Amino acid sequence: MKKIITTAAVCILLVVSACKKESSSTTNTTTPTSTCMVQSINYGDGSADSYTYDSQNRLSRNVFVQDTLTSQTDYTYAGKIVTAATAGGFTQLFYLNSNGFADSSVMDYAGIIHITSVYKYNSQNQATSMITSGNYFTTPVNESTTYEYTGGNKSKETYNDGTTTSVTTYDYYTDKADPAKKSMEAINFVNGNTNLLKTETVDGTDVTSYTYEYDSTGKPTKRTATSTGNPVVSTIAWTCK
Question: What angle do CA 133, 41, 103 make, to 5 degrees?
Answer without folding.
Answer: 30
